[in-house]
Structure formats: C-alpha cells, structure tokens
Amino acid sequence: MTPPTALPTPAPRGIDAFVGALSLRRVLIASLLALSVAASLNPIFITPFPVLLGRLLVIAVVLLLVFTAAGVWHPAWLPAWFAQVTAVGLAAPMITLVAYLPSVAGDVSRVLSHESYLSGFVWITGTALVIAPVLALGALYRERDAQARNQALRFELERSELEKQALDARLRLLHAQIEPHFLFNTLANVQELVESGSAQAAPVLRSLIAYLRGAIPRLDDATATLGSELALVRAYLELMLLRMPDRLQFELAVPADLAGLRFPAMALLTLVENAIRHGIDPGEQGGRVEVRARRDDASGTVVVTVTDTGVGLRDDAPPGTGLANLRARLAAFYGSQARVELREQVPHGVAAEIVFPVTGAAR
Amino acid sequence: MTTITATALIADDEPLLRERLRAHLARLWPELQIAAEARNGREAVELFEQHQPQIVFLDVHMPGQNGIEAARSVARRALIVFVTAYEQYAVQAFEQGALDYLVKPFDEQRLADTVARLKARVADPGTAGAKSPALETVLDELAAELRRRSGTASFLQWIKASVGTSVRLIPVEQIAYLRADEKYTLVVWEGGEALIRKSIRELADELDPSRFAQIHRSVIVNLHQVVQVNRGANETAEVQLKGRTELLPVSRSYVHVFRQM
To answer: How many separate domains does chain A show?
Structure first.
C-alpha cells in the first residue's frame, strides 16, 4: 500500500474512463470530419465518392479510438495532448494503409507502387496529421476552461460558506446566551440577600444588571471594545463569586491602554464561562480564574488569555457550540489572522488564548 | 397541628442558598433540626451516614457527585426533597416518580406545601415508601440523563497533543486527518501538526463514526473536511481535504466508505 503522502493529481483511469470519454458528440464530430474531408478530397480523387467516404469513416473512427485511448492510458510523465497527437500521427499512415487493403486485395506493394493509390494515401494521412493536433489542442483548451470554471465555482462555494458561517454565528448569538440555569440560581442568591437585608444586595444587583446589559444578544459590534468586554466579564465573575465564594478566586489584569481596542462582544465571556463551567464548577475544590492581555509588538498582535486552575478538560467533554461560535466570530471580525487556542495547565486546568491583529482593529 | 420533630440535612454547593433554605425552614417548621449542611454530593452522603437524618434536601447540580447520585446512596432511608434551578427534564422525572422537589428560586408558600407533605410522611412513615415504587428506576434514569447533559459524550471530543513544552487541546472538529507514524499518530489540524501516542486503532474506536472514517490501514479522515474523492485504479481512491494540497489514499477495503456519497 502506498503511504499517504502528496501524490500527483491522478487522471481517471481504466475502461470506465475510456468509455466515458467516447461520447456521442466525439463520434459525431469524427463522422462529420470524415464527411467534409471526403467532400473536399472528392474532386482530386478518381475513387467513387461512397468508397472514399467509407474509407474515411473507417479511418476517422479508428483514429478517434486511438486518440481517446491515448488520452486515458498515456504515461503519467507525458502530457495527454502530446500523447494523443503522437499516437494519431503514428496510427494515421497505418490505418490509411489498412483502409486501402480491400481495394488492392491485400497487396501492400500495389498501394505503394500505384501512383493514384499512393497520392490518395498521402492526402488522407496528411489531412489526419493536420486535423489531429487541432482536435487535441481544442480538447486541451476545453479541459483547461472546465478546470478554471471548476476552480471559480469552488472559490465561490468557499466564500459563501464563510459568509454563511459568519451569519450563523451572529444568529446563534441572538439566541439565548444567558443560561436559564445561571440566571435562576443567581436570582435565588439575590433573593436571599434581599430577604436577609444584606448590604451586599445592592452591589450584586448592579453586577447582575451590568451582566444582563452586556450579555443580552445584540448584533451591533461597532461599539464593542476590549474594555466593555472586560466589564461584562467582571460582572459575570462577581456573580459567580457570590454563588461560590468558597470555591472561586479571580483576577483581571488588562493594561488600560488596550481597553479601547475594538473587540467582538461576548468573545472573552465565552472563554470565561467555559473556564467556570468545565474547570471550576465541576471540582469540589474550585480554583482560580485569571484574565490577562498583552500587546506583542513583534507580531503586531494582542494576546488575551483566560487561565483556570480547575479540573481540566476530559477528552470526551463536549466542546459545545460556544467555542466554534467564537472562532467564527473572530474570523468575521478580524479575518484569518485571529485565532483561539487551548492548552492544558500544570498541574491541572486550562489556558485559553485569543490572538488578534492590532493593526486595523485599533480604534 | 401537633408538633412533629424531625432531623434534616441540607446539601447545596451555594452557601447563600443553604442559608436561605435554613432560614425559611426555621420559620415554617421550628421543630425541624438541621443536623448538617453539605457542600457537595460526597459530603452529603458522608454526613447522612454520620447523622442519619429523616429528611434530606438535595441540590441536583453539585460538584463532584451530584444530587441524583447522592440520592441513590441514600435511597429509601430518608425522605428526599430535590432542589433544582431549571432542569426541566428533572422536574418531569420527579413528577412521574412522585418525588418531592423545589424549583429555585422558590417562594415560601411552595416550601410550606413541601413542609406539610414532609410532616405527614414523618408522622405516618408507612405511606412514604409505597408512594414511590419506581424510586430507583427514576433515579437511575435521571442519573443517566444528567451524565449525558453534563457532557459525558461517548466519543472523543478533544485531542491532547504535546506541542513544544505545552499540551494543546484540539477540538476534534478542527482535525483534518490522523495518520499512523511508526509508534505515534500524526494529527493534522487547522492550526498545525503534532504527534500523539494513541494508535490509529484506538482512535478509530473512540472517535465519532458519523464524523470520522478510517480510509486506510494508517489513515483516519474527518469526513466534514472532505472536498473531493477521486477514483483510482484497482478499486482504490484518493481523498482531497478542505484547504489542503496533499491527497490521502483510500485503500480497497475502505472504498465502501464513499460509496453512497
């Protein structure tokens, strides 16, 4: 078996390909060519027209078979058109000779010695040698054309696929981003603060309002910045801290000069929510979530990382739509230069990293 | 109403919610003694064995062991009240199994109904077991459902691969193909290439067959990234992947994978 390395593009091979290439169109073209050659050669031939036409039809069909076969079974290092022209060039004199055999009762020497047979032989062979390259080049041109159209179609398809992905990402964003489970649990906590007259109630409600304002679906990314995204993340983490004060610690460390950079809404929140959901919440011990950002002047990018010291991802944990959604949104927002990558932390936990270009994304 | 005394255990990972339940119970049922509070399912079972309370309030969603699993350990040795925040499917199962439950955030009236039922059962224990004949079945089904939802997918979703000094987590949907490379397997994905220790055979068993197909003794391909399949000689074929130039061989015994396409 061959190893799966890069191989030259294979042409379709075998009898199937041969039969497939022998289209009715090609047979018709060959017959029409035979007819027109017969008509144009008729004045200079003494042979009756039906005999001349018969001979040319036989020659045309056999040459068509040779032409097609050469196109299918030519050696890989030889271009198809060259193999086809060479094969037809070699076959034409022989076929013509064979076509003359019935008239000379099988005596080849009579064709070569008889002047009118010889000139007929030369005329027909010559005509075949002129027509074959023209046909081969025509076929080659059509094939190139089809390939170009194919390529254009594929590019078109890829482009519309990208557009569709970006649109899907926006539509998914419209659907509930706020998990009911999160909302109701948070409200239950707020309820307790209010009922017990806790002084914490007011700041927690402020966080909840900030979170809802940021997380309620919106399509307009025009005003979204890294700073506004951080405010949303902070509100979310404050609420989670209220719910799991004994299991969560967090820190946000983003330089103030990066806050004004344009940044797709909800992109960072997705990573922080994942850190809580897959890292902190499932563990009895909880853990620490850190959000950091730094400018990398060498590559002209900004790197935002979300690290947690939680239980880490099991390899059968569902990636969910969140991450796929995030990747599509980053691609729509920054183009192909942005990426999101996940790494395992030592001794346990996950580090998620968004890298985006700062040129063009800067305000 | 006559005074009925009882002991109870409260299990919830959120301290404010434990406090709230305790405060409301104190008002509605002053004679109820809260024997202990647990922060997760494991603690709930330990404290249950230690204190043997008659009533257990169990939050469904807890870290480590969840409330349903804890309930299976407690089984019929106590009256169980589940506390849940939204799990619609759980509520349905509780109703079918005639299990008591509270939906967070609950109001005091709803808790008062639960307290009345609990008092009746504590006073006449004979009715308690008879009312829920399918308890174990319901709990088993719920535990399975919860596992499914909390994401124990049966297939591999992430490939962990060492790249440099760190371990990359690669979502399987980003993988183009996997190829055996002596003792290792080469993972080729949108972000690069890496070697992992898992064998092609193991991966073929663990990956979702609706997305990944083995096409060669040494190659598994992500079907979602296949752009084109070229038929070759001797019943073989070659596969072209999205955005990649290399062609992957399909050997004769795997050609059937692409028959219906």
So the answer is: 2
- CATH number of the structural domain spanning residue A306: 3.30.565.10
Are A181 and A165 within one domain?
no
Distance from CA of A306 to the nearest CA of B (A): 14
C-alpha–C-alpha distance, residues A249 and A243, integer Å: 12
Min Cα distance B218 → chain A (Å) is 8
Q: Is residue A362 part of a domain?
A: no
Q: Is A4 exposed, middle or buried (0-12, 13-18, 19+ CB in 10 A)?
A: buried
- On the CB side of A7, CA atoms within 13 Å amount to 18
Superfamily name with CATH number, domain B6-149: Response regulator (3.40.50.2300)
Q: What is the ipTM of this complex?
A: 0.85
- Between B85, B169, B172, which is nearest A184 by CB? B85
Residue A8 included in any domain: no
- Closest chain A CA to residue B19: A192
pLDDT category at B18 given cuts 50, 70, 90 is very high
Phi, psi of B23 (to 5 degrees): -65, -45
Contacts of B45 in chain A (CB under 8 A): none
> Among residues A169, A189, A204, which one ends one of the domains?
A169
| pTM listed for this prediction | 0.70
- The domain locations on chain B are 6-149, 158-258
Residue A113 and residue A224 in one domain: no
The answer to whether B40 contacts chain A (CB < 8 Å) is yes
Please name the fold of domain B158-258.
OB fold (Dihydrolipoamide Acetyltransferase, E2P) (2.40.50)
Q: Please report which residue ranges of B2-107 form alpha helices under DSSP H.
A: 15-28, 41-51, 67-74, 88-96
A342 or B191, greater pLDDT = A342
A4 assigned to some structural domain: no
Question: What pLDDT was estimated at residue A339?
Answer: 92
Mean pLDDT by runs of 10 across the 363 residues of chain A is 40 67 80 85 81 84 85 78 82 82 76 78 81 78 80 78 72 66 92 92 92 76 86 95 95 95 90 93 94 93 96 79 83 88 92 87 43
Task: Show the domain range for A299.
Answer: 176-357
Distance between A244 CA and the closest CA of chain B, angstroms: 6
Which of the four pLDDT bands, split at 50, 70 and 90, describes residue B29? very high
Of the partner residues A6, A180, A245, the one whose CB lies closest to the CB of residue B245: A6
The answer on pLDDT for B152 being more than 70 is no
Same domain, A147 and A239: no
A347 in reach of chain B (CB within 8 A): no
Q: Look at A187 and B258; give whichever has higher pLDDT.
A: A187
**Are A209 and A145 found together in one domain?**
no
Beta carbons of A214 and A226 less than 8 angstroms apart: no
Residues B204-222: what's their mean pLDDT?
A: 92
**Same domain for A184 and A161:** no
**Averaged over B203-228, what is the pLDDT?**
91
Q: Residues 6 or more apart from A15 whose CB is under 8 A from it?
A: none
Quote the radius of gyration of chain B (alpha carbons, Å). Answer: 27
Mean pLDDT of chain B: 88
What's the order of all strands across the beta sheet hosting B175-181? B192-196, B184-189, B175-181, B219-222, B212-216
Q: Is the same domain home to A185 and A261?
A: yes
